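Example 3.2
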Amino acid sequence: MEPTDTSRKVFETLYERVCVSVENAVRAMADADQALARDVIAMKGEINGLIDEALRYQAERVAPTTPDLIAAFRMEDEFIDSLKRIYSHAKRLAKLLLPPVVAAKEA
């Protein structure tokens, strides 16, 4: 089953933003850049919003009319979950640069 243009856009946007968070977390660690680390942590709302958008879009298509659609939903769920975990690791990495009190506040 071929993804629709809308689903492709939704998932590509989520993927690209998670990639940016990972790149920035790694760069923040390499450069000991606390401001960049804070930027990664601050992406939480954006990433969660993109995840919610992907799940909302998926829910709109829930009336499975073909067996392929169920398989596509499973694959999309795994993709969303994987990207969520990847961002979570990037955020944790970024928190390592911040003083414990600031990192806790940024959660």
